[in-house]
């Protein structure tokens, strides 16, 4: 009897499964679950303490504002750049494509320093000029939004580009021959075809933006109650031996990301092609 | 009137896809663009639709110059080889698309969609998604979608190319009947000469970016302009320096005046036909006849026969430079 070497029940398969489970458990599941148990050591007190502290509430609000702004910016530009990359030929296309991956490979701290070099209020290239017209970027919300947008830049694009490529241009041409103008084609044909890719890109970007630490630390100045974001609060509390507070804040951040992913997997249609 | 293509040239880089194409496509008829793969049929059709622009030359539709008109303003129905259905819309929504773009009243749209779906026999599938339809059904839906906006002309790019032989044949007959009902000027691309001969009122033969001949199926079959057209519309063999169709070669078992003699080298039976290859001094000649006829002649390998053209056969002198497709 011929048995497939890819049979599911071989000892190798069991061993592999065990390895994967152990790997995920020690690297992801266990540490994360410890954050949860530590948060709730004393019930909900640690969470309610958190919301009683106005500085923490400010930090959470700032994180939310920065993350949502960054996601909106990255979604709009991401869809635009994806269309450019897939639908048009132009010189330097490959270079642009490579440039978009840069934020994934560069350390966020480098991103932060680079932004300071350009927009820094005193010595930046552009910073002093902007400051003269009353716009402060570094050590202020715009800088935080920019840093966050920078690190999450490729996520929407990398989701949308392959789907856009696969969908092809024929549906749009069919719509064109049926009388649809460019905007109608975009809204009625292109957007719905890449809808799910955009949703995934947004979720990934949101999760990444909420958790951004390094770049934000450099550009924000970390001023308590003003430019301190939630991740910076976690660090601060941790360094000040307020472990409960640190775990509780970390838990909140993690929960938002988990909630995003759960919601998407729930509303996602079973089969979509 | 109708569709007028004048002096159209199109290059992709250095590659000449269309070279000085001049064609007039008559109003209200079913015209086939026939030719081998890569000949430029799709390119010409897409230029007529405005989905591609010609490097030079003009297109006019029903007397109006459409050369610079974008596709969305040409009022042309286009059916793609791979359907190009709107995957995220139901069948009814797909068909309604053009009407909704034109902001027609809801009731009117619903009524028209209903009528069209009946016309293409998809009445009971209105609320399905295209992914739940078969290939033939998808193509009929695409056709209904194109017809919904009452286009001046309907252009179909190998509409049945991706379907299996049986469905293809059914849809082809159906298209002919549909056209007899709707009477919209229709151009369809095909590389299947049988499809073109069977369905079209008029055939435009295109090869290597040039129009080889334009005419009715009978004209093309009986008076092919050149080797290429003769060869593309059906099988040919060479007899006495002329191209002739194998079934127009008369086979005799006794000497005839002016007949070419040879020996049967191969006999092949395919269904009701018999194909015999005869080796002569001037090379191999293929002949085709019915089984009954072959039996009455006693046709077998090694038998000596005399070959001549049947009276009234269509023949074309062999041009040595042209390769026969
Ligand atoms: N966008 C393009 N870029 C470069 N070359 C192209 C492009 N479109 C078509 N061509 C070339 O032009 C020639 C004609 O193409 P076209 O699609 O018109 O052929 P066709 O007659 O429709 O063939 P088929 O029966 O295979 O569909 C082909 O050699 C093709 O490679
Ligand atoms: Mg083609």
Automatic annotation (TrEMBL), chain A:
It is a multi-pass membrane protein. GO terms for molecular function: ABC-type sulfate transporter activity. Signal peptide: none annotated. This is Sulfate transport system permease protein. InterPro entries: MetI-like (IPR000515), MetI-like_sf (IPR035906), Sulph_transpt2 (IPR005667). It comes from the Bacteria. The keyword Membrane applies. It is found in: Membrane. It comes from Nocardioides lianchengensis. The keyword Cell cycle does not apply. Part of the ABC transporter complex CysAWTP (TC 3.A.1.6.1) involved in sulfate/thiosulfate import. Probably responsible for the translocation of the substrate across the membrane. Keywords: Membrane, Sulfate transport, Transmembrane, Transmembrane helix, Transport. GO terms for cellular component: plasma membrane. The complex is composed of two ATP-binding proteins (CysA), two transmembrane proteins (CysT and CysW) and a solute-binding protein (CysP).
TrEMBL record, chain B:
SUPFAM superfamilies: MOP-like, P-loop containing nucleoside triphosphate hydrolases. CDD domains: ABC_CysA_sulfate_importer. Keywords: ATP-binding, Nucleotide-binding, Sulfate transport, Translocase, Transport. InterPro entries: AAA+_ATPase, ABC_SmlMolc_Importer, ABC_transporter-like_ATP-bd, ABC_transporter-like_CS, Mo/tungstate-bd_C_term_dom, P-loop_NTPase, Sulph_transpt1, Transp-assoc_OB_typ1. Signal peptide: none annotated. Its EC number is 7.6.2.9. The keyword Plastid does not apply. Residues 3-233 form the ABC transporter domain. One of its GO terms (molecular function) is ATP hydrolysis activity. It is an enzyme of class 7 (translocase). SMART domains: AAA. One of its GO terms (cellular component) is ATP-binding cassette (ABC) transporter complex. This is ABC-type quaternary amine transporter. It comes from Nocardioides lianchengensis.
